[in-house]
Design brief:
The chain is of the alpha+beta class and about 450 residues long. It is built from 12 helices and 5 strands.
Length: about 450
């Protein structure tokens, strides 16, 4: 244990405490010098004053040099019998005090124990070493040897308690640091999640708005009615984008900010609305489902919706395809979602390929392709991170027959009520028929 005395200036209260301890030790030494060998009392002799002054003068340095102070006070205690004084625990009080101090300051417990035992043995051996030895002296020798041992045990106990308190404080400090680092890590993860949400939202809505504006610009001179319809859909798309953007950015508000209504996180229940938006932008999308539809956990449901959204957005931005297929396969413990495009390289507006004026200028598909022909961003990376975050995995690549395929498998909880599952299956089949009649197949 490190010496806490140090060489710097000591506080005023420490000086008062040291003075009180030294004065008390001096008084006890003189009181021990009053006792005589024949059990009588006499005024302290000059030898008693010398013993008290020399041994107590060493006490103030016990914090800086505890071993030196212990050796000095022990040596003075051994000289008590040769000077004609009675060796008692009172007259060796300074040696007891330095024993306690050294047991606190020793570097190892082994050194402390050795020093305490040697001090006790030296003081006890001084009694029979000088003069006659009787059974009465034997009892006094045991008492003199016991006092340094008790002081050493007390110092060792206090040393262990200090070490325990320091360990507790260190653990508390490390726990506080771990809590801070964990909080910073969670904040960083939440920022990444919100950034991913904003990317998916903005990329999807801006792509649709760009496609609708491209179609409106192409049909502005030739088909004003269709242009008006496209502009109306563009207004709806941008309005919906602002609503979702406001709901997502609302997550960043502080607790004291004005509360704003936030929409629930989207899921596969909003898939028909999503597909209708892409169809209005000129992409023919069909959807097929197999198996029994089951409710998904909120995180998995949001992930499934965002993957479909991002995959179709990439088809509109980069593939230049005229149609895409969304397939959902429900099995016992997972749902498999695939989004594939035909790779035809044409993204036609609903009526841009017919009519006599369509051949007089660039087609809507070429204009749309020129508008969205940009290098791909982080869509695939974001989809893969989303799937991995909920325990699934995602693969993407070109198909041998042409086009691009995105496939993901997401875990779902096991079914618990077979009757309820059959009811959902009947509802799903009816929904598939309705969706097939509305969307058609490419």
């Amino acid at each position: 244990m490190a010496n806490t005395g140090g060489g710097g200036p000591r506080p005023r209260t420490s000086w008062w405490r040291e003075g009180a301890i030294t004065a008390l030790a001096f008084a006890l030494c003189l009181l021990g010098g009053v006792l005589q060998v024949d059990d009588t009392l006499a005024p302290p002799s000059a030898s008693a004053y010398v013993i008290a002054v020399v041994s107590c003068a060493v006490l103030p340095v016990r914090h800086r040099a505890p071993l030196v102070a212990l050796a000095a006070t022990t040596a003075v205690g051994v000289l008590v019998p040769p000077l004609g004084l009675l060796l008692t625990p009172l007259i060796v009080t300074p040696a007891v005090i330095t024993t306690y101090s050294y047991s606190l300051a020793a570097r190892t417990e082994r050194r402390a124990a050795s020093a305490v035992v040697l001090t006790s043995a030296a003081l006890a051996a001084a009694i029979p070493a000088f003069g006659d030895f009787s059974w009465k002296d034997a009892s006094r020798m045991g008492v003199v040897a016991a006092f340094p041992l008790v002081a050493g045990v007390l110092g060792h106990s206090l040393r262990n308690r200090r070490a325990y308190l320091e360990a507790v404080e260190e653990r508390a400090r490390r726990a506080e640091q771990n809590r801070d680092s964990e909080a910073r890590r969670r904040v960083a993860e939440e920022r990444v999640r919100i950034a991913r949400e904003l990317h998916d939202l903005v990329a999807h809505q801006i792509t649709l708005a760009n496609a609708q504006a491209t179609v409106a610009a192409h049909l502005f001179d030739t088909r004003p009615e269709q242009t008006r319809t496209s502009l109306k859909e563009l207004v709806e798309t941008t309005s919906h984008a602002l609503d979702e953007l406001r709901a997502t950015v609302g997550l960043l508000r502080q607790s004291g900010d004005t509360a704003a209504p936030a929409e629930p996180a989207p899921g596969l229940s909003r898939l028909p609305t999503l597909l209708d938006a892409f169809r209005r932008a000129g992409l023919e999308v069909s959807v097929h489902q197999e198996g029994t539809v089951r409710p998904l956990p909120p995180g998995v449901d949001l992930t499934a919706y965002r993957i479909v959204q991002e995959a179709l957005t990439n088809v509109t931005k980069h593939a230049g395809a005229g149609s895409a297929r969304v397939r959902l396969v429900w099995t016992g413990d997972r749902v498999t979602i695939t989004v594939a495009d035909d790779g035809g390289g044409t993204c036609t507006a609903p009526t841009a390929s017919t009519g006599p004026t369509a051949s007089s200028g660039p087609t809507a598909s070429s204009a749309a392709s020129a508008a969205v022909d940009r290098s791909p961003g982080y869509g695939l990376i974001g989809m893969r991170e989303r799937a991995t975050a909920v325990g699934g995995h995602l693969s993407a690549g070109r198909r041998p027959e042409g086009g691009f395929l995105v496939s993901t498998q997401l875990p779902i909880p096991p079914a618990q009520d077979p009757t309820r599952d059959r009811d959902r299956a009947t509802t799903t089949e009816e929904g598939q028929m309705t969706d097939g009649e509305a969307g058609g197949t490419p």
